[in-house]
């Protein structure tokens, strides 16, 4: 016989701990998703303002190409040209920061 207690003797304790872990994991994932959405919106806003300030299509294309190369080298493929365009679109569609803060992101 082993001195190690079995969790089968305390299913309510095990279930309680499983519930805590699952609840915390869900909260962390939701918080990360909200913060990433806010980050992407801010990136889109920054790029949009820079492009509009210079008011030249060629400049915008080169800017996005250069930014995507630099950011992808530093942070990975999540900052490729396609995604940067998506960030700009997010900022264009939702122009009010308070709306972004109040977004409920689900997965």
Automatic annotation (TrEMBL):
This is YhcG N-terminal domain-containing protein. It holds the Pfam family DUF1016_N. It comes from the Bacteria. Residues 17-102 form the YhcG N-terminal domain. InterPro entries: PD-DEXK-like_domain, YhcG_N.
């Amino acid at each position: 016989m082993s001195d190690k207690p079995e969790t089968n003797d305390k299913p309510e304790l095990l279930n309680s701990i499983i519930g805590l872990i699952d609840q915390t994991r869900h909260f962390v994932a939701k918080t990360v998703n909200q913060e990433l959405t806010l980050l992407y919106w801010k990136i889109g806003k920054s790029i949009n303002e820079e492009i509009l300030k210079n008011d030249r299509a060629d400049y915008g294309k080169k800017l996005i190409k250069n930014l995507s190369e630099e950011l992808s080298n530093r942070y990975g493929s999540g900052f490729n040209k396609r995604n940067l365009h998506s960030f700009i679109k997010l900022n264009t569609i939702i122009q009010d920061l308070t709306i972004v803060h109040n977004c409920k992101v689900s997965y």
